Amino acid sequence: MKKKSVYDKIKDEEEKLKEENKVKKSPDIKAMFSQRVLAFIIDFFILGLISSLIIMFVPVSETASKLYEEQNKILMSYSEGTVSMEEYVNQLIDLEYDIAKQTVIVSIVTIVISILYYVVYPCYNNGQTLGKKLMKIKIKKTDDTDLSMNDLLIRGMINNSILVNIISIILVLFLSKDLYLSTSSLLNIIQYLVLIISLIMIAFTKNAQGLHDKVCKTEVVVADTVKEDVLCTSGN
C-alpha cells in the first residue's frame, strides 16, 4: 500500500476541517419583514440624497431650467388656490415629457448612481447596502455559493426600478409625447405591482423571498449568522 505524502495528509486534514465546519455552522436566520422594509426606506432616502448632491454638478440646458421654473410656478399656483387640482395635474403631465426629454443626461447619471449603490457597493461589502448594514441584514445566495455582480444587477433591475428607468430613457428618445406618457404610466404601474407582490411574498411565504429573490435565488438573512469572508464574484 502506497504511503501518503505530507501534502496528502495536509489535504485530508483540510477536508476534515471543512466537513466539521459544515456540521457546526448554525442555520441562517431570515431577516424580519420590518428589517427589510426599514432597510429599503433608508436606502431610498440615502440614494435620493446622494443623487441630489451629485446631480447639482450635472449641467442642464437652458430649456430644462425654464421648464423647471414653469413647474415651480404651477406648484405655487396650486398651493395658492388659483389653479384647480385637475388643471394642476394636466399641466404637470404636459411638462413631464418635455422635462424628461431635456434631462436625459441627468437620468443616465441617476441610473449609474443606482447601479453603484445597489449593485457594486453591496457586491464588495458583504451583500449589504447602507440600509441593510444599519439593519444588520444582508443578501446571500440560497445555496451558499458566492453572490455575483449579475445577481445584484438583476435584483436591482426588478426591485429598485433600474430597468424601468433605463426603458424610460429609451422611450423618451424614440416615442411621441402621447405614446411616451401612456407607456411610462404603464411601466410605473407594473413597477408598483412588482413591489407590492414582493412585499406580500416576503411577509407571507415560508422562505420570505420576493420576486427578485426568487429570480436570482437569493435571500436576506441576519448578517451575524453568515460567513463574512465571502467576496462577490463577477459572474453567476
Question: How would you describe this structure to a colleague?
Answer:
By secondary structure, this protein is mainly alpha-helical. The chain has a domain at 31-60 and 103-220. It has ten helices and two strands; from the N terminus they run H-H-H-H-H-H-E-H-H-H-H-E. It has helices at 6-24, 33-55, 62-80, 85-102, 104-123, 130-135, 149-159, 162-174, 177-204, 211-216, and strands at 137-141, 218-222. Strands 1-2 form a two-stranded antiparallel sheet. Helix 2 (33-55) packs across helix 5, helix 3 (62-80) packs antiparallel against helix 4 and helix 5 (104-123) packs across helix 7 (149-159). The longest helix is centred in the C-terminal third of the chain and has 28 residues, at 177-204. The protein is elongated and about 85 Å long. Mean pLDDT is 86; it is low at 226-230.
The low-pLDDT segments are 226-230
Q: Characterize the biggest β-sheet.
A: 2 strands, antiparallel
How are the strands of the largest sheet arranged? 1-2
Helical amount: 55-70%
Rounded to an integer, what's the Rg over CA atoms?
24 Å
Name the quaternary structure.
single chain
Q: What amount of the residues lies in strands?
A: under 5%
| Backbone structural class | mainly alpha
Distance between the termini: 43 Å
The average pLDDT score comes to 86
Number of helices: 10
| Overall strand count | 2
List SSEs in N-to-C order: HHHHHHEHHHHE
- Please state the overall shape, judged from the principal axes of the Cα atoms: elongated
